[in-house]
Amino acid sequence: MNQLRLDLPINVLRPGRIWGSYRHFALSLPEPRPVQCGYVVQGIRGDLSTFRCVEGRASPEIKPENLIRIVYAALNFKDAMIATGKLALNPSASIERNVDSLIGLEFVGFDENRRRIMGICPNRCYTIT
């Protein structure tokens, strides 16, 4: 009866007759920081709200003259089907092993000499470098 008098929006009774309540704590948003290389991943396949940018590693073997500054990456039908979970992925396919992002097939950008470049790759075209 004492618990009801507290007029809490949510009452939780744990084993051992321990009463509690759920609380909402506002968390501060993470501060964005510039990175040299990053790409887009989807946390839960089929849940469009779980897209996020993660920091990637630029391979030391890549020469600076071979880097492309990506300015546009298309979202095509395959990407949309993967993102919404409507396209079943075969886990044994070699393209999918050890890859955390299958989103991104095509990109457009510039090389260090400001020449326009269009490219296609199997994944991670939603990237910044």
UniProtKB/TrEMBL annotation:
Species of origin: Dinoponera quadriceps (South American ant)
Q: Which gene specifies this protein's sequence? A: LOC106740538
Tell me what this protein is called.
Fatty acid synthase-like
